[in-house]
Amino acid sequence: MRKLLLFILISIPFIVNAQNHQLKGVIHSYNNQTIYLYSIYIDRVQLIDSTKTSVYGQFQFNLKKDLSKGLYQLGITEKDRLDIILNNENIELSTHISDPFNKLTFKESKENKIYLSYIRKRNYDQYRIELLQPVISYYPMTDAFFPTLLMEFTNIQDSLNQYIDKTIKDNPHTFASILIGIDRRPALNPMHNQVEQKEFAKKHFFDGKDFSDTAILHTNILTSSILSYLSLYQDKDSNKALLEEEFIKAVDIILPVMRPNRKIYEFVIDYLIGGFDQFGFTKVMTHIASQSIVDESCENEELKHRIEALKKLAPGNKAPDIIIGNTKLSDINKKYTLVVFYASWCPHCNDLLPELKDFYNAKKQDLEVFTISIDSSKNDYQNYIRKLNFKWINACDLKGWDTQSAIDYGVYVTPNLFLLDKNKVVIARPSGMPELIDLIK
User: How many Å apart are CA 122 and CA 106, to the nearest integer?
Assistant: First the structure.
């Protein structure tokens, strides 16, 4: 009995260790150097481990069991990072410091062999397509060589799509196949002009893409896909109003595609609202809030509150009252009130507020400005308003982002502006001085 117990106790560590996996290999001509392992969550990259190469360039990471399936990065030099899929398998690789990506091979790891092979083919085929596109555009259609150009363009696209189809079919349960399927781009007609190709891509960008696996949150492929799709709606000659109208069209395509997976759907809503908030595209943000299906089952309380605030502060709705000390928004009696959330440490605020000060001095008969600082340092706040000598209404409760008015107004970035009429009804959320001036005019 004792021998049996001793055998069990000795065996337990080996059973546990057998569940762990290793990432190891050799980086030739990179001896006695520190390398790093990074995790990816959406668009955030975080250092999770490091080790040193041996005198022969060899290294090894013992992968923890709690590491999520996803895309990770092996950081070699400051500029050289290799994408690595971690999915419950041992990984062994070999490369050379002179050209880590192009000299990379995987001796062990089915996932990474599949993915690396695809990335190399995709990069080469897209490079050739990009070279051919302008040639086809300008080459004489009546020339005997023109059909050859068209055929080559079509063959490259067909070859890549056939490669993707075969890879996914032959490896149906791999994470690499999921990433490859999402990364696929629509095949373009070489006879179409750029506008026609862009319109085709808008309609077919998400064809056949599967966003149901939550593990894609541990990669950058989701945000990359969203940004690529949004770029189809950008036009450098469009003004802000036109851009917002175009982005609303894009959002109406993106959100239904993401809806089957609740966690991914909620992330995409949050990501889009946050991104458009950075650029002051409040019309798009409000539209997203109005179209989003987020109920009590949503675990992201901040997102639920943000959507509620966007709906509540849509143009035409009465703004919540703001009370800080003895100062009340509802006590202001001017034709217009501009509520401004800012911080002394915010560089964009430092650009905006001096310009707003001049505008206020010229318009203060009809306009009141009510600024709320989200500073938490009393000295920083007081020194800032003393230095710039603001004569409008200044308020700060030193609670930072937890100030009640910032919570009520759904403020997550600064500066953030709300233009109200005499009855404190929201007119608009101007993104800067030019838009504010136009609204007042």
Answer: 18
Gyration radius from the chain CA atoms: 28
Question: Which class in CATH covers the domain with range 19-108?
Answer: mainly beta
Domain definitions of the chain by residue range: 19-108, 109-191, 204-312, 323-440
Other beta carbons less than 10 A from residue 287's beta carbon = 20
SS3 of 368-416: EEEEEECCCCHHHHHHHHHHHCCCCEEECCCCHHHCHHHHHCCCCCCCE
Residue 116's contacts (CB-CB under 8 Å, 6 or more residues apart) are: 104, 106
Other Cβ atoms closer than 10 A to 14: 8
Indicate whether 302 pLDDT > 70.
yes
Could you tell me which of 409, 387, 405, 389 has the C-alpha nearest to residue 397?
A: 405
Tell me how far apart the alpha carbons of residues 284 and 393 are, in angstroms, rounded to a whole number.
Answer: 30
Residue-wise pLDDT tens digits, 390-427: 999 999 999 999 999 999 998 988 999 999 999 999 99
CATH class of 323-440: alpha beta
Dihedral over alpha carbons 26, 105, 180, 77 (to 10 degrees): 40
Average pLDDT over residues 100-110: 97
Which pTM does this prediction carry? 0.81
User: Would strands 34-41 and 44-52 be described as parallel, antiparallel, or unpaired?
Assistant: antiparallel
For residue 232, what is the DSSP state? T
Q: What angle do CA 348, 352, 355 make, to 5 degrees?
A: 155
